[in-house]
Design brief:
The chain has 8 helices and 9 strands. By secondary structure, it is α/β, with parallel strands linked by helices. The strands form 2 sheets. It has a 5-stranded parallel sheet, sandwiched between helices. Strands 4-3-6-5 form a 4-stranded mixed sheet. The longest helix has 16 residues. The chain starts with 8 loop residues before the first strand and ends in a 5-residue tail after the last helix. It binds guanosine-5'-monophosphate. Guanosine-5'-monophosphate binds next to β5, β6 and α4. The site of guanosine-5'-monophosphate has 15 residues, from β5, β6 and α4.
């Protein structure tokens, strides 16, 4: 790792049911340098979801309070509920040099890109739409009405896939996690992520070349 290298923000979006959760778990299991941000949401917990682990579950009132005190890096309304990224954890992890992964939908993704231009935006998609529906139904956690709503939402989201930095097809979650890992590693080598290093080496070169010719 280069000296003074701060972590980078990695946004992973994808249609509901694209398998993002499994891919994220695989990434965190295999590599130490990633921190996964836990979002705040007003949606009801699904069976087995724990407060503070999958999400911080909150009331609309508390969520709006958090917005008012600028405690969220981004937030959006998705299928009738608020979702947002708490600021404190993300900033702390970036400073400590870890790369922070935000698993968020597209409105939030573009807010992040605006505020943090060096953030990397990755879009994960299943190989095709039929596979997407099959996975949503197979998960068995949502009613048909919610599934239909999420399929319509996926069609809207597809309009903006082309604005992401990278597109990854999830045929196999292990391969997909490896691919995302390589994308993140390459992104850390962009000059914009190493400004302090560049400034320091420039100053050193100036100092060391003093007096020559
Ligand atoms: P789910 O209800 O299935 O857990 O999530 C619904 C959508 O909200 C997913 O696309 C997920 O990536 C997105 N999401 C989760 N957390 C956040 C967040 O903090 N901000 C935004 N903008 N979207 C989020």
């Amino acid at each position: 790792m280069m000296k003074h290298s701060k972590g980078i923000l990695v946004v992973v979006s994808g249609f509901a049911g694209a398998g993002k959760g499994t891919i994220m778990r695989q990434l965190l299991e295999n590599y130490d340098n990633y921190a996964l941000s836990v979002s705040m949401t007003t949606r009801q917990p699904r069976q087995g979801e724990r407060d503070g682990v999958e999400y911080f579950f909150s009331s609309r009132e508390d969520f709006e309070k958090k917005i008012a005190e600028d405690g969220l890096i981004e937030y959006a309304e998705y299928c009738g509920n608020y979702y947002g990224t708490p600021r404190h954890y993300v900033e702390q992890q970036l400073l400590s040099g870890r790369d922070v992964i935000l698993e968020i939908e597209i409105q939030g993704a573009f807010q992040v890109k605006k505020k943090f231009p060096e953030a990397v935006l990755v879009f994960v998609t299943p190989p095709g739409a039929a596979e997407l529906k099959r996975r949503l139904v197979g998960r068995g956690t949502e009613t048909m009405e919610v599934i239909d709503r999420r399929m319509r939402r996926a069609a809207e989201e597809a309009e903006h896939m082309g604005d992401y930095d990278y597109l990854v097809v999830n045929d196999d979650f292990r391969t997909c996690a490896e691919e995302i890992h390589r994308i993140i590693q390459a992104s850390r080598r962009k000059p914009g992520c190493n400004e302090e290093f560049i400034e320091e080496i420039k100053a050193e070169l100036k100092a060391l070349s003093k007096g020559d010719n």
